Amino acid sequence: MTDKEEWVVWNGSMGILDMATIGDIQHDETGRKASLAPPYGVVGPFSLDELETLGRIAFGECLVMSRQRWQEDQLNLRLEAREKRRTLFFRADIDDDHDHREILGLPFEGLLNLSEINAAFRQLAKTAHPDAGGSDEQYRRIVEARDALLKRLTMTG
After folding, report:
1. Which residues form the J domain (predicted)?
2. Which of 65, 66, 97, 135 has its CA 20 to 30 A from that of 16?
3. Contact in structure between 149 and 104 (CB atoms under 8 Å)
4. How far, in Å, are 53, 56, 143 from residue 76 at the CA level?
5. How remote is the C-alpha of 93 from its chain's centroid?
6. What's the farthest any 2 CA atoms get from each other in the chain?
7. Contact of 25 with 37, CB cutoff 8 Å
């Protein structure tokens, strides 16, 4: 019975995976409309007929799907969600990334690799380090820029 069956709820942008049951079901001339039971009662109304036929429906940022459909689609859904989060992460930090690249004298565009970041840091450290005539502030800035770019690199790798 549909109202007792558990359905997978997936919100890839938030990384939420949960199980839910169907709550309120209403019949009209276009078919059956349903909402999920609490705590997901805000998901709906959607076509229950479509959900049962296709095994999956989209509602806002959520997907509601059968367990079987989740098993079939989860790898692609997780990869898509990861890519979306990565894109948002880059967009949110673009100014910081620009500043870090500028501090290390790296190009503003394109992907960086580990050796480029470390080489730029080593070159600047030769003169920025306090023992080499630089200042604590100069050295701290290039260390922070290097560390931030390396952290970004490991998060996307």
Report:
1. 99-154
2. 97
3. yes
4. 21, 14, 37
5. 14
6. 81
7. no
Measured CA to CA, the distance from residue 14 to residue 21 in angstroms comes to 20
Helix or strand holding residue 98 (H, E): helix 94-104
CA distance 116 to 121: 9
Is residue 97 a contact partner of residue 104, using CB atoms and an 8 Å limit? no
Q: Which two tokens stand for residue 33?
A: 């409309």
Q: What is the pLDDT, as a whole number, of residue 92?
A: 47
pLDDT at 156: 59
Is the whole model's pTM more than 0.70, yes or no? no
Structure letter (DSSP) for residue 109: S
> What string of pLDDT tens digits covers the 157 residues of the chain?
455 789 999 988 777 899 999 998 999 999 999 999 999 888 989 999 999 999 999 988 889 999 999 999 999 998 888 877 766 555 544 556 888 999 999 988 888 889 999 999 999 999 888 888 888 889 999 999 999 998 888 775 5
Residue 32's φ and ψ, nearest 5 degrees, are: -95, 135
Structure tokens at 106: 């790296």
- Distance between CA atoms of residues 63 and 76, nearest Å: 13
Q: Which amino acid is at 97?
A: D
Going by DSSP bridges, is the β-strand pair 46-47/56-59 parallel, antiparallel, or unpaired? unpaired
